[in-house]
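dumping this here before i forget
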Amino acid sequence: MTIEQNGTTAVVTQNKTNLIELSKELSGLYDQLKSQDIILHLKDTTSGSIEYFSSLVNNHFTANRCFIFVSAELNQEHFENFIIIPTLQEAYDYIEMEAMQRNLGL
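structure:
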């Protein structure tokens, strides 16, 4: 797992770990990332389920922050409680739109 900071956004990229290990690693670092929007760039979605991230996602949304999965392999229709976007650029655009809505009080 690698973490790249970009302003108030942390981009976490899955390297060779499976999704279970990635969720454990991310949980261990969550206190450092909880005040940022998180983009989780998945490289291999066949190694488990994104359901492992449910508690992290719920905590993040409660804190009024974005937690976005980037994967061209996953389909948003199959995961109602998660935000799944196919590209990093679209994830950044989504976060920007969410920030505007928060600032406007919507």
